[in-house]
Amino acid sequence: MKHIALCGALAVLLAALLAGCGARAAASARPADSRELKSTPPDSMHATAAITEQYTLEKVVQAENGSKVRLNIHLPRLESDSADAARINAEIARYYEYDVQDYADCPEAADPDVWDICIEMNWNASWYGDCVSLVVSSCYGGTDAPFHNGWCFDFESGNQLTATQLLQRMGADPAALEEALYRDVKRRDELDRQAACERGLLPPGSLKEGNTAWWATLDELPFSFDEAGNVSFVVGRFSASGGEYVNDVPVIPLDAQPLPENWEQQVLTEWMAVTAVTQEGSYAPADRNESYTLRLEKAEITGTVTVSFIRETYGSPQIQSAAETRTGELNAGAVTGWDGEKSQGWNLTCLSEDGRSSWTISMMEDGSLRMQSTGPKKGSEVWYVFRRTSAWDDIGFSAIPRRLWGTYRAGDEAAKGIRWMTFLPDGSCCMSVEWDGWSGILTGTAEGTQGRTEDGTELYFKLTDQNGRPCEFWAILLNDDGSPSGCSLKYRAGEVLFDRDTRPAYWKNDSPDLTLVP
C-alpha cells in the first residue's frame, strides 16, 4: 500500500497561504464533533455563529474497488436566512455530494494510518466588518494543485458581493490590484517558460508565447487578506517546465497604486546619489570624492528590471571603480524611508545571488529615487537618494560637471603642456604639467563657476605649484566632439590661450575597472 501524505501537505500549505484577515481574524463556529480550527468570530458579529460546517468528515475508508481512501472534509455553511446565503451553501454542498458522498458510507479501514488516495476539502474565511471572503479548496488524491473557489458575502444585508465590490469597500483600487497581479503572475510564467526553454522542453524564443491572461476579471479569483493589509489571490496556470498545473498565490498590498503610464520613461535611465544615510548620519558622496551611480534598464521578463550599482572612488591619477548587477522585481506597495516619508505605490526588490543582501528601490513624489541597501551584518543598512545624472549640473555640488569627473591623459605623448589632469567630485583638480624648462604638479579648487559655450564647457580654477606658489588664473575648455579618441582640449593661463586646433590633442579617462566583492 502507498501512503500518500502529499494531499495533506498541500492542504496545510494552502491553509497557511490563505490564512489571515483584513480588519479581524477569520470567523468560524463548528459542531462539537468537528476539528478545532484556529479562528475566532469577529467582535462585531452577533452572538450566534456566523459560519459553521455543514460537512465534517475525517476517516479512512475501504472503497468498493479495494483501495483505501482518506477523507479529510470540512465544508462551511453561511448562517444566514437570505436567498444568497442559501444559494452559496448549496453550491458548496455539491462538492461533498458529487465527490465525497459515495465514500462516506464505506466501511472504515482497519489501519487508518495507511491509504492509497486522499480527498481533501478545506475552507478559510477573511473578515472585513460584517463582510467575509470565503475560500474553499479541494484536492482529489493526485499530485495536481488543489482547486479553489471563492464567495464574498455581506452578513448585514444578506447579499452576495463580487470580489470587486468587497475590495472597493476595503478602500482598494481593483484596477491597480489587477495590474500588479498580472505583472506578478506573468513574470512567474515567463520564468517558468525560460526554464523550460533551457531544458529543451520549449523551442527557443517562446518566452512570450504563453497565456497573456488567466482570468477575465478579479471576480473570478478567490482571495483572502491579512491584518498587514495584503491581498492573496489564487491563480491556477499550467507549468511548462513541470508539465503540471500549479497554483500561484501572489501577495499584493491592498493599497497598491497603478504605475504611471510613462513609468519606463521616468525610471529606466541613469541616476546618481546625492545623499547617503547610514547609522552615523548623512553625507554627500561628492564631498568624499566618491560617486554612486544607479543604472536601470528594461529586462526581458515582464515586471523585472536590470539594476546596476556602480561605486567609484576618485583619486589622482586613477579612479577605483566597482559594479554589481542584479535583477529587480517590480512590486506594488509604497516604501517608508528612514525619515518616515512614503514613496509612490511601487518598488523594485533586488536580492544578491546568495539572498543575504537586498536593494529596495522606489520613487518619491519629487521625482527622486531612494534605495535601501541591507546586508547580513548589523548596522549595514544604507539609504541612498538619487537624481538623474542628466540633471546633475543643476544640483550644485560642484562646478565640475559629472561627465568630466575622473582622470584624463594626453593623447599626444610628444606635446608639451598638461600631461594628465584629474577632476574630483568635491571640486578640486590636480594636473601634471610640463613646460619648456619646468615640470611639476599643480593643484587647486574650482572657483564655483563654469561657462558653457558652443565649443564646450569652460572651467575656472586657481592653482598652486608644489611649493604652494599661486599660478595665474586658469581655464580649461573641454569639448566632447564625439571622437572615439576622447575630448579635445584648449586651456589658458591668464589671457593667453593655448590652442591645439592645428594639432588636435585628445583626452581619455584612464581609470581601471575593479571587480566588486559583495
Automatic annotation (TrEMBL):
Top-level division of the source organism's lineage: Bacteria
Extent of the signal sequence: 1-25
Question: Keywords for this entry?
Answer: Signal
Q: What is this protein called?
A: DUF4430 domain-containing protein
What organism does the record attribute this protein to? Answer: Faecalibacterium wellingii
